[in-house]
Design goal:
This protein has three helices and three strands, in the order H-E-H-H-E-E. A three-stranded antiparallel beta sheet has the order 1-3-2. The termini are far apart. Strand 2 and strand 3 form a beta hairpin. It has a single domain, classed as Arc Repressor Mutant, subunit A, CATH 1.10.10.10. The chain is α+β, with helices and mostly antiparallel strands.
Length: 70
Amino acid sequence: MVQEELQEQIGLSAGEIYDYLNNNGESTFSKMKKELDLKGNFADLGLGWLAREGKVQISKKGTSVSVKLK
């Protein structure tokens, strides 16, 4: 993939994650990732995008990572 295509796919993944959290509230990252079925690293990259923009709050309890919108 070229740079623009990668950025577009990451942005689309971030949008899917945002919509999921907006509709479902707080979720574990593993549950959200499984339900969205984002391919490759795009769940990780999309969540990173949202974190960088300050749109999500990420917390860790033991080995579980939870995510919610700010």
